[in-house]
Design goal:
Elements lengths: L4 E13 L2 H16 L12 E13 L3 E5 L6 H8 L7 E6 L3 E4 L12 H11 L4 H15 L14 H14 L4 E4 L8 H14 L4 E5 L3 H7 L2 E6 L2 E6 L2 H11 L7 E5 L3 E9 L10 E3 L4 E9 L6 E9 L4 E8 L11 E8 L7 E11 L5 E14 L23
Parallel strand pairs: 3-7, 3-8, 5-6, 6-7, 12-18
Antiparallel strand pairs: 1-2, 1-4, 8-9, 10-18, 11-13, 13-16, 14-15, 14-17, 17-18
Helix pairs in contact: 3-4, 4-5, 5-6
Length: about 400
């Protein structure tokens, strides 16, 4: 397999101005300076900021660069530079081969032209002849699953239909370089899975740059990770899981309680996770398949001890993945000096690798009426070498039956 470098970025920087008036003025100054052979300065002028600063990476054929970071980190700016939509202020970008891009919903489509006409337009931009597009147009339409609307103006398409057509054109044309932004999040689940199967097919012959806020999607196809933070490289390397861990740590919400209900009978005092790994950050780390031991302290002014406690574990996208239920009827609760302390133990916790948050709910055990609720009051991280999509990584023993004959 040809492992040539198809995308190479060296010392890339891009500045923007927060003020439109100053942006136009600086643009004129820079244009005049370039005509005189004067290089633009690295120093920021009033109201300017770096959207990207000193970015370096390369992507070879058969590799996928997962580009991650928070909103405003510089991901879309970088993709637009790679696609030639805007020019950098400093640095060099080398792109070898045909470039297919899906970086903005409806980008590259003429809204008053039909889907079929836009296929030919996009193919021509990629450098394909009419005869080559003729051979691919039916497969593009079939993949997009919009045949009955293909001769309708694109301006009448839904967002999902635009994504279908855009990805079909970008992928079915089999470009050397494929740039994909967060637009796949618009499509339905069935089509997204279909897109990933197509990516698996073309990736051996393509260099892919993939932008997403969905870490399962990134870990699914990325061979290396570039994490941007305020326009700078926070992490780059082939250790995909390590880059994803840094992404999650960057977005941890902290340990402040978000109380959504409190009738005054009971209130959370502290949450402590035991049996944790030492960490340089404030985020407690727990090894996969180790015991989950958590100590919870409450303050209470009530003598009513008929409380039902529920701990809910949610993933970083705040999807509940598990809960622990404790009824006071199973064990007498003791309140000493308006203090109530509980310790929960769960053996061999098998949550998959990632960052999780704990919410605590308290109800009256008889009436089931809510008494107290605190969302995302505590965060912790599960450490493991395996990165999987599913929230649970269950330990199991496979038994092979060798008694049968073939």
């Amino acid at each position: 397999m040809d492992r040539e470098v198809l995308v190479k970025v060296e010392g890339l920087s891009k500045k923007f101005s927060k003020s439109l008036k100053k942006s136009l003025k600086y643009g004129v100054y820079d244009l005049l300076g370039n005509l005189r052979g004067k290089k633009s300065s690295d120093e920021l002028r009033p109201d300017e900021f770096y959207a990207l600063q000193d970015i370096n990476f390369e992507v070879r054929r058969g590799e996928c660069l997962g580009l991650i970071g928070h909103n405003g980190a510089g991901k879309s700016t970088l993709l637009k530079i790679l696609n030639g939509l805007i020019n950098p202020d400093h640095g060099k970008v080398t792109m070898r081969g045909r470039v297919g891009a899906l970086i903005e919903l409806g980008a590259g489509f003429n809204p008053i032209m039909t889907g079929r006409e836009n296929i030919y337009n996009n193919g021509a931009v990629l450098g394909f002849s009419k005869e080559e597009i003729d051979r691919k147009v039916e497969s593009i339409i079939d993949f997009a699953e919009i045949r009955e609307f293909i001769d309708m103006p694109v301006q009448n398409y839904s967002s999902g239909m635009k994504v279908r057509l855009g990805f079909s054109v970008a992928a079915q044309m089999e470009p050397d370089i494929l740039l994909i932004d967060e637009v796949l999040a618009v499509g339905d689940l069935g089509f997204v899975l279909k897109c990933f199967k197509q990516i698996d097919t073309i990736l051996p012959n393509t260099a892919l740059v993939f932008v997403s806020h969905s870490m399962p999607m990134v870990s699914r196809i990325a061979t290396q990770i570039l994490m941007l933070d305020s326009g700078k490289t926070k992490f780059i390397g082939s250790q995909v899981s390590q880059g994803i861990d840094l992404y999650y740590e960057r977005f941890q919400t902290g340990n402040e309680s978000n109380i959504v209900f409190d009738d005054g009978q009971i209130a959370l005092d502290s949450v402590t996770l035991l049996n944790v790994e030492n960490s340089l950050t404030d985020l407690p780390k727990l090894n996969w398949n180790s015991d989950f031991i958590i100590k919870i302290k409450f303050n209470t002014s009530s003598d009513n001890i008929n409380f039902q406690f529920t701990l809910i574990i949610s993933d970083k996208e705040q999807r509940p993945v598990a809960s622990f239920l404790r009824n006071s009827s199973t064990q007498q609760l003791l309140i000493k000096k308006n203090k109530l302390e509980l310790t929960l133990r769960h053996k061999n916790l098998q949550l998959s690798k990632g960052i999780y948050s704990i919410s605590i709910a308290v109800r009256d055990i008889k009436t089931k009426q809510p008494i107290y609720r605190s969302n995302s009051c505590f965060n912790f991280q599960i450490i493991n070498t395996d990165q999987v999509w599913e929230p649970m990584l269950l330990n199991a023993e496979y038994i092979v039956d060798n008694s049968s004959t073939i």
